[in-house]
Amino acid sequence: MSLVINHNLMAMNAARNLTGHYGELAVSTRRLSSGLRVGNAADDAAGLAIRELMRADIASLHQGVRNANDAISMIQTADGALQVIDEKLIRMKELAVQAATGTYNSDQRMIIDSEYQAMASEITRIANATDFNGIHMLNGSLAGLDPTTQEAIEHNGEGLNPTGPVKIHFGTGNDSAEDYYYITVNNSTSSALGLANSHISTQRAAQLALESLQQAIISKDKIRANLGAMQNRLENTITNLTIQAENMQSAESRISDVDVATEMTEFVRQQILSQSAVAMLAQANSLPRMAMQLIGG
One MF term from GO for this chain (predicted)? Predict the structure, then answer.
């Protein structure tokens, strides 16, 4: 290579190498400081696209877990109210047995019937008043039945207030096979339980009321059993969603997160190369002085 003064090609080469090494050093510094291997699309375009889709699914799965937990809270609220209704039905059957015996006169049976009617009214009040976040659960609004024809109706969420069974959505898509299912809760008012016009003011009426109360208790137990089964299903759904989110987070981490040991090795390598390039650039910048020595010599 000729000794020239117009162009310092060795300095230009050293500067170019320094720029490259310093840029790689900056990338390593960014990755180590952020903990991310993929910080922008230039690092890994395909990996970034896959990572963002995974992040969206992970966030959706976490929200799905919260949705399922809210559904469990709703079911527990309904079950708690049904437990109180259970106590009322047991008391009503106790009163019916009391009024069915022949050792009480008509006035005494009327007194017993007054408590019996109060219990029936309280059952209806509880069924109409029990709600979760404004959603009434025991008055038949979630039974999935048309109030007039008693025919089955499907969930309809097109309006501001959905009708039919309550829809619990927990998946990342909108496929009924894996992303949501419905919860139905039958009507638990006294009339819906078969106790409409039921009384124990006479011995015969009290005896007939025993059968109605037995069927009412069975109907109530079926509602509670359905809620208990649905709660167990939701708990299993939460377990599955949690495992799914954990595995997807692991996959996203392998794409997105930096391997600190490997990146630290690369950081030290680029640091040494940068320091070497700086030293050589300083040496290259001093080479034209040799030409000045010849000219001045």
Answer: structural molecule activity
